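#data-curation
PF: Archiving a pair of folding outputs for the training set. Convention for this channel: one message per protein, sequence first, structure tokens after, nothing in between. First:
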Amino acid sequence: MKKLDILTPIGITLGFVMLMFGIVSSGDGGGFTSFLQVSSIFIVIGGLCAALLIHFNLAQIKLTHRVLKEAFNNNDHNLQELIQLFIRLSERARREGLLALENELDEVDDLFIKKGILLAVDGIEPDMITEIMNAEITAMEERHWKGRAIIEKAGEYAPAWGMIGTLIGLVLMLNNLQDPSTLGPNMAVALLTTFYGTVLANLVFIPMAGKLENKTDEEIFYKQIIIEGVIGVQSGQNPRILEEKLGAFLPTEMKERAKDGVLKDYMEKSVHEV
């Protein structure tokens, strides 16, 4: 289940608030209006969009809004619940056989888990199950990389277009040195385009790309646990051994909670139900 990743909007908002505070506290009275330059905005945003349209195909461009949306979402990966699920599946598989696990799949929302269990029920060899599921992880990683590439390239192009705007402003300024009234506006274009491009790259695009990469790493880690769980259930491992094996993937604080009885209580409940 996906939830709002509140840290992304908080981080972006905090960054802009700090910029505004810096502008107000160090300004000479011009305030925000001194940092608003329409021509600079057009150069950076227009040039950035044009570069992305040239670099990527239409199908990739259409994915941009979905990729940006993912930066504001957080997958709720509860490792303890995942381990409990596989303990329950292992209990039932040992008690009633692998075919009985098909009845458990109605309560499972994760398609990756369902696929692994169905492969196990079909009697596929463990090595082949691992190979198939790892291939799916690789394909997922490739899809995520292609989507993230748009944001990464935006982070590269934004400062470059800021520099292009700076060059435009400098050329205009040098061509009109005889008219002192044009020096200020042209210098503003030169400096503000670099400012806009740098802020967009380092406050928005590059951090978002980093967050998306972290989410991919978390997803891969989660799916690797699922693979271990599927193989453990198929091989008929003792639920307690499977608990210890999958528990090795838990962070230290979760392991401490497990020692306090979080998973052990579940195991005892399962045994009583048998």
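PF: Second:
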Amino acid sequence: MQIKTITSAQNHDLKELSRLLQNARDRRKSGLMVLEGIHLATACLEAGGELTTLYINEEAAAHPEITALLGSLNDRVAVSYIAAGVFAKVTMLSSAPELLALARRPVPDTPADVVSRLLLEDIQDPGNLGTILRSAAASGVNEVFLSKGCVDVYSPKVLRAGMGAHFVLNLHEAADLAEVLQGFGGRKLVTALDGAVSLYRQDLTGPVAFVFGNEGSGVSDSLQALAPARVKIPMPGQAESLNVAMAATVCLFERVRQLENLPEG
């Protein structure tokens, strides 16, 4: 493995890295994502992902986990040590991570006809999207369909919030949610406030598709019309609504609760 040292922020590779950190169009065009820190890079590799380039903060070069990571890479991965002051100029984080890595965006597999799934319409906040993905991974709903209007699911902020969830989920970008919902053979539930029934009165033990919408406008009328069950989370307190990531988490884990309470055998 050939390792080089970069000491200037004007380096061509670092300029390209900066573009990928900041620009969703460049990330999509290149088919790459930027992983910030040891945890995400390791999670990607453990899930069978492929790193193409590794940029290591010189100040963290002796870190035991970086040493182990380097030992696990194949010879095709380009590795560079970056001077600490230069590294701080490239990353958008307030505190520079130990490393930045470029990895190929995974290509989703074709899902089974009837398997529980999550449909996300025009989710704009990276923190919300990452949290929803983390909850999906934790609750065992691994098929996620994102509308074209969602924030880039492989943006650095979403990846950080997802904490490795991206690498265990089947993520379908720019999906036609109406087509996905119409072709789904299980229960279809959309979150809504008006004319909705309690989530806790729904049978979630079979295949189910949950639909969650934009932070401000919720699920569109056209998608609501395709989901026979309009549900809401009862809130006896004073809040008018829940953050979409919180609402998704409650729904996903109500499904887990119901599955856990099924009689054995």
